[in-house]
Specification:
Elements (H helix, E strand, L loop, with lengths): L5 H12 L1 H12 L11 H13 L4 E6 L13 E8 L2 E11 L18 E2 L2 E3 L3 H21 L4 E9 L10 H6 L10 E4 L7 E6 L1 E10 L14 H21 L16 E9 L19 E10 L5 H18 L5 E9 L2 E2 L5 H14 L4 E5 L5 H6 L6 E3 L14 E3 H18 L4
Parallel strand pairs: 3-6, 3-7, 7-15, 8-14
Antiparallel strand pairs: 1-2, 2-6, 4-5, 5-16, 8-13, 9-11, 9-12, 10-11
Length: 431
């Protein structure tokens, strides 16, 4: 672990002097209600970020992901990419943060879009995931530019759409258009909330699918004349419970996934829909007596780097085919919805070693190395951009994400911003 240098002292002091600005910026970002779905306020928050970064000499580009999932004239998928060239050629460090937040939900005791600061925390939807991290990266870059105006290379900061719904209107679109080409960008830090003393190397894989069982409609007083798709789905759920879950519990990974329960393969039943549709708004009468002729579930299967996606799918297909062979009248359809291959950056990668060293100099101890239980936008930078030198590092406690009264610690943001600034100094030397 390298001892702090004179430059470290200058950079950390510069960030300490910007503490109040860091809090205000986080509050301002929280006050944009960028809810996804449907994808509100993307253009407004991008313009806010662009105007701020332009004042520090960044060239600003606004990129709409036209035609991406969810993009429409009412809810356009806007992204902002800001680039600041140094005084001489060199490598590029890119900070990528998503600007969207999930629904508010119930149970809040503060205004979810108020950005209230109290007791060393900033509260609001997106405070932890991940507007606090976005603010920390901006202040880190601005502090670095103030102390090291003659740096070599380039700094990029992006605010991107739709990470909470797969990232196809954000980082995936940018990657498809060359923004993460290794010839353009060499190092990427995604300030997701994984704790200020952790480096996240990657994530597990995911496969979402919809399973539909078929039946035959009939009068509910004579169900024997029909065939209930819901009962067929009950057989599917029983097999998942009794056969598949025990198998998944035996699958373990060497990936340092957190929390411990996610070091095995998992499957979640996201939703169940069967029989009559939900009543229209305003109708509070009784349903009609019918046997369900359709039932659907959506499954969310998280898998390990040691597993093959084809085998993951085959496990579920085997259950369904087994029921088709043994259960009278059973038939089904299965549709792929979403899939992501596991990703994990090597611990010896340049960005990993650089950030680890900076954590040691700021916090006085080395980092923990972890892997996320869920996916985030590293998947697109890796698989589409073909850029492997990428990590997630940022302030915030992951368990607070998507919770009521979500918050980010001010001290954590300050410390993370210092780590980011020291990493910039190591990767973009002065001329």
């Amino acid at each position: 672990m390298t001892e702090p240098s004179a430059l470290d002292t200058l950079l950390t002091a510069e960030i300490d002097a910007r503490r109040d600005d860091l809090v205000r910026l986080t509050q301002d970002l929280i006050r944009f209600p960028t809810l996804n779905p449907p994808g509100k306020g993307y253009r407004e928050i991008c313009e806010f970020l662009g105007e701020r970064l332009a004042r520090s000499g960044f060239a600003i580009e606004y990129v709409r992901a036209a035609g991406s999932p969810g993009d429409s004239d009412r809810y356009p998928r806007w992204n902002v990419v800001a680039r600041r060239e140094g005084s001489a050629p060199g490598e590029c460090v890119h900070f990528n943060s998503h600007t969207d937040v999930v629904e508010v939900g119930h149970g809040w005791t503060v205004d979810p879009f108020g950005g209230e600061a109290k007791d060393g925390r900033v509260y609001g939807r997106g405070a932890c995931d991940m507007k606090g991290g976005l603010a920390a990266s901006i202040v880190a870059a601005e502090a670095f530019l103030a102390v090291c105006p003659d740096f070599c290379g380039a700094i990029e900061i992006s605010g991107t759409a739709d990470e909470e719904s797969g990232g196809y209107g954000g980082v995936a679109h940018l990657a498809e258009h060359g923004y993460f080409d290794p010839a353009r960008v060499q190092h990427v830090i995604i300030p997701e909330p994984l704790n200020k003393d952790r480096i996240c190397l990657g994530h597990r894989g995911v496969w979402w699918a919809e399973i539909e069982t078929h039946g035959r409609i009939a009068h509910g007083s004579m169900p024997f004349l029909g065939d209930s798709a819901i009962r067929h789905m009950g057989a599917v759920l029983h097999q998942i419970e009794e056969v598949l879950y025990p198998r998944l519990a035996l699958k373990r990974t060497e990936m340092p996934v957190v929390p411990e329960g996610a070091r095995q393969s998992t499957l979640n039943i996201n939703s169940v829909h069967g029989g009559e549709r939900e009543p229209e708004d305003g109708y509070d009468g009784l349903p009609a007596p019918c046997v369900a002729d359709r039932c659907r579930i959506i499954i969310d299967r998280r898998y390990l780097i040691e597993e093959d996606l084809a085998e993951v799918k085959a496990e579920v297909a085997a259950i369904l085919d087994g029921l088709a062979d043994t259960r009278a009248g059973f038939s089904y359809e299965i549709r792929d919805l979403f899939e992501v291959i596991p990703s994990m950056t090597d611990r010896d990668a340049p960005i990993v070693r650089t950030v680890a060293d900076a954590i040691g100099r700021v916090l006085g101890h080395g980092p923990d190395y972890v892997v996320s239980p869920g996916t985030y936008d590293q998947k697109h930078i890796d698989r589409i951009g073909r850029l492997k030198n990428c990590i997630a590092y940022g302030p915030g406690i992951l368990d607070l994400a998507h919770q009521p009264d979500e918050w980010v610690g001010i001290d954590d943001m300050v410390d993370s911003s210092k780590v980011m600034a020291l990493s910039l100094a190591a990767l973009l030397p002065r001329r």
